[in-house]
Recover the amino acids of this structure.
């Protein structure tokens, strides 16, 4: 059985903060690999500035193409929308019975975790490897047997900050892998 971390996100765009977390988790835990699950639409977020699925999918693949520890999966693109984590995990378990799936997530998700579809089933069936986010606590999940907190490096970089910086014509080249910075500039993404 292969222990696989699932890193869900819209990755709009993927940035070095995502990659640092993924690398930390695969190098400092018992995870053997990280799969980036590119989500078409988070039901708890607005869609207004979301790039088309194919562009976000392409950028994740571009960012990790030379790293065998990482894989991008588009399973949620082929599921009913909005996509729910519990449904994705059910499908992944069916498709990959030799993998043990672990959710890799920031501590900030527990602020709204009670709103997730079947959240109790989810946390009782799947381990959560949680990286600390500033000013977010685990609350009632702090001592949950399925939740492990890791002291991963904290970077205050977000996709929304990157999008806003591009819109304001500010340079953000060191916040992105070089190939992602180049692609965004070539495609004129996030300028309006």
């Amino acid at each position: 059985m292969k222990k696989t971390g699932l890193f869900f996100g819209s990755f709009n765009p993927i940035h070095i903060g995502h990659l640092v977390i993924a690398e930390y988790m695969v190098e400092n835990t018992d995870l053997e690999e990280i799969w980036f699950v590119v989500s078409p639409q988070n039901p708890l977020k607005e869609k207004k500035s979301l790039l088309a699925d194919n562009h976000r999918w392409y950028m994740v693949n571009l960012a990790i193409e030379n790293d065998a520890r990482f894989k991008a999966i588009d399973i949620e693109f082929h599921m009913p929308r909005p996509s729910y984590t519990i449904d994705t995990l059910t499908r992944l378990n069916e498709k990959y019975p030799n993998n043990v799936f672990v959710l890799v997530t920031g501590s900030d998700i527990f602020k709204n975790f009670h709103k997730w579809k079947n959240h109790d089933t989810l946390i009782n069936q799947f381990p959560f490897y949680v990286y600390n986010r500033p000013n977010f606590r685990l609350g009632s999940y702090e001592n949950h047997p399925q939740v492990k907190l890791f002291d991963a490096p904290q970077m205050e970089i977000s996709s929304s900050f990157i999008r806003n910086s591009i819109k304001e014509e500010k340079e953000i080249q060191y916040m992105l892998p070089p190939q992602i910075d180049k692609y965004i500039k070539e495609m004129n993404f996030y300028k309006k």
